[in-house]
């Protein structure tokens, strides 16, 4: 067929509709008409579009799912225990405590070792207590009766100045050890226990001694005043 015939034949639709396909026009070796090939192309195009659309839909779904998937949870954070600081006192407010005030110790005197009535009686008789001069004289010279042993305490004399009648007594604190020593001296000098209620001893020369809790007493009477040692001991025990 000449080129002119081919060109004419190509313009003849009847020829294309009924002319068989050559092997090079049909890769599968089959003979299809142009209409059939058009249908195939349409079906292929639809399949391609559908495949592309499916890929896009799957991609969108996978992308959305990836957005909703939370990352794997890691280990829970461990929090270190909070250090609570020790409470510190406010430096501007100092704690105050009520001071403990010890009651003042009552000191023995030549007056408070006697009852008030006995003091009144002595004063009405013109008697008075001795002064510091007499006390110092007894300490320096002694009285021959043992009153000087009470130089660490009080030394008292009630009577008329330079008179013959008077009473003398002494009071002093004493430890248990010293009390044992003085008690032994009283007993070794002929003293005897003369009262069952407390340690009351008679001594030499008419003197009397008594030992209490932390104190001891001396008493000498040439005025005939009875039971004054009992009074002295009772009042000394209250101090």
* Helix coverage percent: 25-40%
Poorly predicted regions are 23-30, 100-105
Could you describe the largest sheet, including whether it forms a barrel? 7 strands, antiparallel
Gross morphology is: rod-shaped
What's the alpha carbon Rg, rounded to whole Å?
Answer: 68 Å
Structural class: alpha+beta
Average pLDDT metric: 74
Q: How many individual domains?
A: 2
Strand content: 5-15%
The first-to-last residue Cα distance is 164 Å
Helix-strand pattern: HHHHEHEEHEEEEH
Description of the molecule:
With 239 residues, the protein is α+β, with helices and mostly antiparallel strands. The protein has 2 domains: 3-64, no CATH class; 116-238, no CATH class. 38% of the residues lie in helices and 15% in strands. It contains 7 helices and 7 strands. The protein has helices spanning 3-10, 13-18, 34-68, 116-124, 132-141, 176-188, 228-238; strands spanning 128-129, 154-159, 166-173, 192-195, 199-202, 208-211, 215-221. Strands 1-2-3-7-6-5-4 form a 7-stranded antiparallel β-sheet, with helices on both faces. Strand 5 and strand 6 (208-211) form a beta hairpin. Mean pLDDT is 74; it is low at 23-30 and 100-105.
Summed up, what is this model?
The protein has two domains: 3-64, no CATH class; 116-238, no CATH class.
Write the layout of secondary structure elements.
Layout: H1 3-10, H2 13-18, H3 34-68, H4 116-124, E1 128-129, H5 132-141, E2 154-159, E3 166-173, H6 176-188, E4 192-195, E5 199-202, E6 208-211, E7 215-221, H7 228-238
Antiparallel strand pairs: 1-2, 2-3, 3-7, 4-5, 5-6, 6-7
